[in-house]
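Office hours follow-up: a student asked to see two folded examples consecutively, so here they are.
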Amino acid sequence: MVVATIIGSAGFVVLEDWTLGDALYQTVMTLTTVGYREVGELDSVGRLWAMIVMVAGVGIIFGSIGVVAEYVVDEVGSGRREARTMQRSVDETRDHFILCGYGRVGSTVARELVHSGQRVVVIDTNDESRGQAEADGHLVVEGDATDDATLEAAGVTRARGLVATVDSDAQNVFVVLSARALNPGLFIVGRASYESTAAKLTAAGADRVVSPYTLAGRRIAEFAIRPRVADYIDAALSHGELAFSIEEVEVAPGSWLDERTIGDLRRDGIFTLAVFHGPQRGDTNPPDDRPLAAGESIIVSGSTEALIDLRSRA
């Protein structure tokens, strides 16, 4: 439009010997198809030039509108705008859990994480699974979780943990390998459909490995042999079904828990079942005079209110 205005004005100045102001006014009127009146009488050459400016104005304006409309329709129809909005939300997320695979197992894991107050970013290649994850209120990243770029888009370097629940054991191993390489401090849980895969997932860098079928078999046996115990543990680990619960709390450096004793917690109505100071090292039923140290994790039980207060102080 700027170029057409300059050229059109110059044409009227040269062909009709108009002033620059009159030529500019006539050109803008012609390009915008307003057409109040002619600044002066036009001869045949001037009229020809005016027609050229009219055609140029119509072509430029309506052509631009068409291009913009096509772009808007394409953006809305292709879903790219929504994808960019979703990615901006993911980029702003910190200390979240990345869930790779949103099938029957993955959706259950996501629901439990949300119940525990965690934010979840779902990675899946299936359109239907991603749509269900969005409908359930989760942030979603499209792509293969074995790809480093996809994991980085999901914020693997800012995440608190990653859960690999893809249906394929081989893919879960690759997901764990990639995530561990990108974030050595990430807590990773891997799903293994077969017992032989568990060792591979551990070697790949998974902190915990779970086999849904093995776990389901054990739970069924527990219900068959000790149904009341199994019911009580399930209720204690659920969300608000009992006024009594079991929690895992980390002892942060300089926190209220640092250098407190087991007896201090007992006096607050909190019972310490075990103290872990390594991946596989733990003390069960610790004595009252045992002090807690930064970096340890404690398994505690007590009233829901007491545990909430403990977590806030920790």
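And the second, which I mentioned at the end of office hours:
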Amino acid sequence: MSTTYEQVQDELRATPRNWLITGVAGFIGSHLLEKLLRLDQEVLGVDNFASGHRKNLAEVQTAVKPVQWSRFKLIEGDIADPELCERACARASTVLHQAALGSVPASMIDPLAAHRSNVTGCLNVLMAAKQAGAARVVFASSSAVYGDDEQLPKVEAKIGNPLSPYAATKWMDEVYADVFARAFGLQSIGLRYFNVFGPRQDPNGSYAAVIPKWISALLKHEPVYINGDGQTTRDFCHVENVVQANLLAATTSDPEAVNQVYNVALGQRTTLNDLFYTLCEIIHGPEAAREKPIYREFRAGDIAHSLADISKARKHLVFEPTQRLDSGLRLSMDWYRRNIS
């Protein structure tokens, strides 16, 4: 018996849609693009390449058939431009809004830039989708909205005070989406991503996510730094699970599922120490015991512990992660070995 996700894919192949992906050249955006093109969909993408990479699009082009790639069109530009958003949304029936400045530390340094991209940009997308008559907007939120709420696991109905400008911007996106549903009838679904990882996640730069940064360091035999004592926990989620959640959210016909936010995670807590030694074992095998991290001060704006309750997504979206942490890391390693010099 096929799963709901498999049924959704069969339905999309039978009845293709016009999709818009913002942030299409980014880590998650490029995976969404690849999946939709493999399903023979028509896709328009927007990216200003502030954090996305043309090489991600080149990888997608290599991964799909030429006829599938021909169904993709790119608009290079910034979602902070309302006219660009109007042009991008003109033919889209479904919008997957991924574009953002997705860094807590960067938002601490430049809150205005985070607001411009994450709040003004999201508002422009919502406005354009409403005006174009799009059926639904699925947008990327973040586990950062839970802020100083100490409850574990995190449930969607209870959030705390934001601990960074980035967290505040993502919370505002959820507020605006709710307002547009109530005031204008625009259907939307927000996905609170927990620590997403996988191929194409950039290991470079000061604000790189922990998994690609550590993989890069271990492959190069460089020091690995842990902020704090290593007992900090995260709910790591492979990008394949995120793609699944987006497609389920975009296609659900359950009226109770719409105009909601959902945790997208594995529902499993891992300490940074455990993550470090798991990566060491995968990369270095028997030599892993020799590896030791370097501990340093806890980073401002970060939360101490993160664990998602994904029962709401399971119930309303029929979301079921297919990649666990260990399998997802092993699935990602070939890409990192090829791309880390």
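Two things to take away from it. The radius of gyration is 19 Å. The first strand starts at residue 18 and ends at 22.
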